[in-house]
Design brief:
The protein has 373 residues and is α+β, with helices and mostly antiparallel strands. Helices cover 29% and strands 26% of the residues. α1 (5-23) packs antiparallel against α2 (30-49), α1 (5-23) runs parallel beside α3 (52-68) and α2 (30-49) runs antiparallel to α3.
Length: 373
């Protein structure tokens, strides 16, 4: 531990050079073997004399001679690139598993705190290609334009996924089929594309921009050391929660909501107010929902999401009755209270289902970009 670095380096070089002589003695020329042995002795003598300058100079000579006669590994460049890629993958998997995980917001239950996928029907044509590319990278916006080629009727709107990331819809008509880069829910809710709709030749089936849902990083690390605080925007698995169906392909979905009730909290909704333990809920997120401010510019239907808290169905449906959150469970509610399928319908989320807190909106670069509140 107290040995000087130049001495360690010199000894290490000697060890490697002697190993090279042992392993390649049958293929090295006599002159090369003699040169290596001579240089090894020079380094060893300098080490015995504790002459730092001599050790450094002779070590450099030995290193140059040693590397000249190392066998060249086959496909060294390919192997190095593969190793770099594998290390990058392992690091990315480690970060995703234990620290930060990316999520996409699919629905509008947290609007306008977080935007889901929003379609904007229009009769105007799409802008030029250059502007479309710019809007996609900055705003996460893509344009669809589906026009009926003949008189027809919509029979089905089926989801179609590619590479597990890209969700398309297949609009199946009686005589024609269209593949559209939009989720079926977006076509149904925003563009009103429904089975049974009839269109004449030249009619617009769906046209307009679609804004992608906010892409967020979720902090999976903090909840291992601290209890989730009330008011956090958090992500949880819905596996095992009665009333939430699982996708046959991807399994139980992940939900993102605001943590409205901790274990042991007593909750009550008297619209538009949320009461926690007998007092009006405190904190930026709760106060913003109860403020009933208008954010019509960011909501496709023009309905203000912040109208306060709406009564539930199975939980918090009666403003005169309270509900106490069970131990090791967390009550989740969407900020867009009147359009959120949350714990008011299916109850609190178990502690083991918690994934982490929503930390940062990293894309698109809209007014939501930045830390989540």
């Amino acid at each position: 531990m107290f040995t000087k670095s130049y001495i360690k380096h010199g000894r290490l070089l000697i060890r490697h050079a002697e190993k090279l002589l042992r392993y390649r003695n049958d293929v090295l020329s006599e002159s090369t073997i003699a040169d290596l042995k001579t240089q090894i002795e020079r380094v060893r003598k300098a080490l015995d004399d504790r002459d730092e300058k001599a050790v450094t100079a002779e070590s450099e000579k030995l290193h140059t001679l040693y590397t000249q006669h190392l066998p060249t590994p086959k496909d060294a460049a390919w192997r190095e690139n593969v190793e770099v890629i594998l290390v990058a993958i392992v690091v990315a998997i480690g970060i995703r598993s234990y620290f930060l995980q990316p999520f996409k917001i699919p629905t509008g239950s947290m609007q306008p705190t977080l935007n889901g996928i929003i379609g904007h029907p229009t009769t105007d044509p799409a802008p030029n290609l250059l502007r479309q590319v710019g809007e996609y990278f900055v705003l996460g916006r893509n344009y669809i334009d589906v026009v009926s080629a003949e008189d027809d009727r919509v029979e089905q709107v089926m989801p179609k996924k590619y590479a597990f990331f890209f969700t398309f819809s297949r609009i199946i008509c009686a005589r024609q089929t269209y593949l559209v880069y939009a989720a079926p829910d977006t076509l149904r809710q925003d563009f009103k594309v429904l089975p049974g709709n009839r269109y004449k030749k030249g009619d617009v089936i769906a046209r307009g921009p679609i804004d992608t849902g906010d892409q967020v990083f979720v902090d999976k690390f903090s909840y291992n050391f601290v209890k989730p605080p009330r008011g956090d925007v958090f992500v949880f698995r819905t596996e095992g929660i009665f009333g939430i169906p699982e996708d046959p392909e991807s399994g139980a979905p992940f939900f993102i909501k605001r943590l409205s009730g901790l274990p042991g909290d007593t909750l009550r909704i008297d619209p538009p107010l949320l009461y926690v333990n007998g007092k009006i809920a405190e904190g930026f997120g709760f106060e913003r929902v109860m403020s009933a401010k208008l954010f019509t510019d960011h909501h496709s239907s023009g309905t203000p999401p912040y109208r306060g808290y709406a009564p539930g169905r199975d939980y918090l449906a009666d403003p005169t009755k309270t509900y106490t959150v069970a131990a090791h469970h967390y009550f989740a509610m969407g900020d867009n209270s009147y359009n959120s399928y949350d714990s008011r319908w299916w109850g609190p989320a178990p502690e083991e289902n918690l994934v982490g807190r929503g930390l940062f909106v990293y894309w698109p670069f809209t007014w939501h970009w930045g830390l989540i509140r």
